[in-house]
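The pair is quoted verbatim below.
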Amino acid sequence: MNRSVIDTRQVRLHFSNHAEEYDRYAVVQKKVVVNLLDLLRSCGPISGPVLEVGCGTGTLSRQIYTLIPALPLMVSDIAHGMTRHAARSVPGVAAVDADAQDLPFRESGFGLVLSSSVYQWMNDLPRAFAEGARVLAPGGRFAFALFGEGTLYELRESHRLALEETGGGRPSHAQDFPSSEEVRSALVAAGFEGVLVRSVYEVERHPGVEILLRHLKRIGAQNAAGRRPPGLGSRRVMERMIQIYRERYGGEENIPATYEVIYGIGRKPA
């Protein structure tokens, strides 16, 4: 699949600007953290040092610290505002700004690399996973959750249809998400063994499409496709998109927002 190119500068800006209010609106993301930790614990003892890639506000690392306070923890994020927030909120953590596709760490330095709700922002998923493998010690584990191709399908399809009707034939530049098969292939290409990939659907409900869009903006999860138009397009397109969304997927008072969460785990060969 030819996915839209992500503008990394926009990703960095969006998330950095919304670090202080992220936790208030990131409902699905918090549920994903709990599920990822359950998956990790089911695979055996947790050993470190631990690196969290794309730490956000530090929700995942705080949970790891609570479970095993003595584990050395390093957190990294491409958005400086997020890195600073995590550094303040996780006791004794070391923090650094870093791009997941080019980690500034030596080889074989970590026993566990973790990431939650981050890798869907990568332009080169195999490269990002290969970086995770590079910094892992032999026998170390790589565990993550990312948003897959079914994520926000209601919003993306409504926008596509609205553009067809009112956008003068312009294509939709809504962001794409990776498939489970792309994720599995990237893990295998990075050299991981014992690969497990699992897809789970989560559904949020909102009073209206405008509220959903506001929530996405408040956590920094705005469209970062490189060729996107400003916002989601003209006011006419937006109004028609909201109308289509309500007609096809909800009603006047309640609309769904679906997230496909892909969980993955692998081990670096010993």
About this structure: The domain at 8-152+175-205+257-267 is CATH 3.40.50.150 (Rossmann fold). The chain has a mean pLDDT of 88. Residues 27-41 form the longest helix (15 residues). The two ends are 33 Å apart (CA to CA).
